[in-house]
Amino acid sequence: MQWRDRLAEGNTLTIICLTVAAAAAAIGLSTSISEEDAGVARLVFALVLAVPAGMLLFFSAFGLVAYFLFIPSISNDAHIFARVHSAQLVHPLTTAMVLGLLALFVYTGSIPGLVAWFGLLAVYSFQTALMVSRIRRELSSSGLEGPASSLLFLLLNLILGGELVTIAAGAKPLPPWRLNSLPPDTWVVDIRTKPEFKWNRMEAAENYPWGAGLMEAAASRPKNRPVLVTCLSGHRSPAFTIMLRRLGFTTVYNLNWGILYLILLEKGSKSSGPFGLTRSQRESNMRGKDFRGISIGYITAALLVLVCAPVERTIWPEEVPLVQQILGAVIGLGGLLLGGVSYLALGRNFRVFAAPRRSGTLVTTGVYSKVRHPMYTAVIAAIGGYALYFGSIISLPFWLACTAFYVIKAFKEEPLLLAHYRDYEEYRRRTWMFIPYVL
Q1: How many CB atoms within 10 Å of residue 133?
Q2: For this UniProt entry, which segments traverse the membrane (predicted)?
């Protein structure tokens, strides 16, 4: 069960989904594109798929942008949030990607693209099943039954996102910048876990982990009192928002895109009153703050390569030499393999933040016995091989920018690793940074 929980909590399957989606798009756009009229029926079917994909993309955009902004958070305990929420937060966007690619392949009539899409669907379905299983176990351990643990509801919540689900149920979505418009006596229901609640909470919030004790508390509250339900990430609160609506509460708000609330707090926009944040007493950690721009930089550059390469080849269809395609595929797949090996070598030491885990250990075995930042090398190689496969000239500056951002990040991380691990100086003297015997 432990490996399933790690897959459900982490970003591994999300990264695999994105990789398979990029491969499917590459295959679909470069092979068997229909040159004849698509026909009305095929066009209508493609539009039926594309419209909900566009809606999901729009509604999940705020949460996705906020998640990437929050990744290099200043919090010592930010890994609690990332471990529990990251995959669920991005899942509606993955749904939009799955629907959008299907619409594209239906419209173009690309049979190889459709075959690759079914591989993407298999990974996506497996990830969804793991998430639902984990959430249902959490709800069951809290003794919560009813709409919150309904299989259909959990599927809709993960696939469509909390924003659309709560709107459909008659609850009122509330963005974080409108918190001050709520009455001061609003009952604030925080359904996060105890460690998350201890980390930070709203001044007026009451904690009901995964809804434990919420039914009993609701029985003693007047039904005309406004209620705000929050879990900050937004993927757990919809279930309890709907439950409170069914219990007769007339005005129930769900805090949409709640992670943006933390961004606003950092800027001092929501730091007082009943909806201000109370942080636990802990040492402030500013080590990740300066990495925010770097993170946004390499993510943006990598996405531009993934998009521009196939689009360029579609608009200007020039034949790429077979040797170049083979070389690009070998480099790209080699990068993916190196990334997977590096991830397995790190194990629980893997972290999305720049600073190492406080309880982590220095990994010096396997691929880490040769280079100190093999995962960065893997990403650079995978993206470069992808662009080379398509023979994309437009992608070249974006790949160079992505490489530069990773190199800068690696050099900035070195002082943090030196300060955290006593053996790092000796380890650094006998290893290379990116490529053995080169750099």
Answers
A1: 15
A2: 12-31, 43-69, 89-108, 114-132, 152-171, 247-265, 296-316, 322-346, 378-408
pLDDT of residue 365: 86
Q: List, as one string, the DSSP characters of 374-424.
A: HHHHHHHHHHHHHHHHHT-STHHHHHHHHHHHHHHHHHHHHHHHHHH-TTH
Q: What is the reported pLDDT for 72?
A: 42
Contact indicator for 105, 114 with CB cutoff of 8 Å: yes
* Pairing of β 277-279 and β 227-230: unpaired
Both tokens of 321, joined, read 């030499």
**Banded model confidence at residue 401, pLDDT cuts 50, 70, 90:** very high
Q: How far out from the chain centre does Cα 342 lie? A: 20
Asked whether the predicted pLDDT for residue 301 surpasses 80, the reply is: yes
| Structure token pair of residue 291 | 């990495």
Bridge partners (DSSP) listed for residue 229: 189, 254
Alpha-carbon torsion angle 313, 314, 315, 317, nearest 10:
60
Alpha helices in 179-291 (DSSP H): 194-199, 214-219, 237-246, 259-266
pTM of the model as a whole: 0.53
Question: Exposed (0-12), middle (13-18) or buried (19+): which is 220, by Cβ within 10 Å?
Answer: exposed
How is residue 153 written in tokens?
């509801």
3-state secondary structure of 326: helix
67-72 contacts, C-beta under 8 A, 24 or more apart: 67/259, 68/295, 68/296, 68/299, 69/263, 69/292, 69/296, 70/259, 70/262, 70/263, 71/292, 71/295, 71/352, 71/353, 72/288, 72/289, 72/291, 72/292, 72/295, 72/353, 72/354
Task: Residue 401: name the closest of 296, 310, 316 by CA.
Answer: 296
Looking from the CA of 79 toward its CB, the CA atoms found within 13 Å total: 16
- What's the Cα-to-Cα distance from 373 to each of 78, 105, 435, rounded to whole Å? 22, 37, 9
Determine contact, residues 75/289, Cβ cutoff 8 Å: no
Domains of the chain by range and CATH?
Answer: 165-278 (3.40.250.10), 289-439 (1.20.120.1630)
How many residues are recorded in the chain?
A: 439
pLDDT of amino acid 324: 92
How many CA atoms, within 13 angstroms, populate the side-chain half-sphere of residue 254?
A: 28
